[in-house]
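Appendix B, example 12.
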Amino acid sequence: MIKVAIYNEYLHEKTEKWVADVYPEGIHGQLKKVLSDEFEVTTYTLENIDELTEEALQNIDVLIWWGHMGHHLVPDEVAARVRDAVHGGMGMIFLHSGHHSKPFKLLMGTKCNLLWRDGDYERIWNVKPSHPIAQGIGRFIYLEHEETYGEPFGIPDPDEVVFISSFEGGEVFRSGCCFTRELGRIFYFQPGHETYPTYYNEEIIKVIKNGINWVYSTYRDHKGLDSHHVKIPTTVSEDV
């Protein structure tokens, strides 16, 4: 069974009643609930983020990251460890405002800014239906309420764009993006504002489950890649 860890800063739920009403067990608690039928799931918050040690990350197949108001509270050394784990083959999924998290910025190498405003309806268009992440998803996913994100999105060009969203105000956004960094795969998925019940939507959870299976790798190089320490075998031909 794939070992999945969910990081949620767990701040909004403790300080804002309307968020706690939507996610009484926290966003991480809701995600664990809906993912545990297929994966072995553990959770982390800002309260125990120091437990995301190098050893812990070596035993995580896929890390899901949700953050918003506490990006600056994540220790730099933890963000660097996450980046290195992805380079070594750990799968990574960033949700919603995770685009501004320290690990995502380290992996992208850009500021990762975007346009945003208060939410209305969102259609998440399936623009690559043959992709493994899009399996079981129809032409689009409709969300009655979701925070509006808009282009330009300051990221490197994705390897693949699986979903593009449109909003009531006319904005469009690359809402499902795939990247590869050394040995690791990354999936960024935009929906998931804390005041809306997005993570109760079965199609959204289907995409996240597909994403877990796509970013998961059976190959992990826990020591990382260092060309100066890789011995290239020499093949001796016996042909005359």
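DSSP finds seven helices and nine strands in the chain. The helical segments are 12-15, 17-22, 26-35, 54-58, 76-87, 102-108, 202-215.
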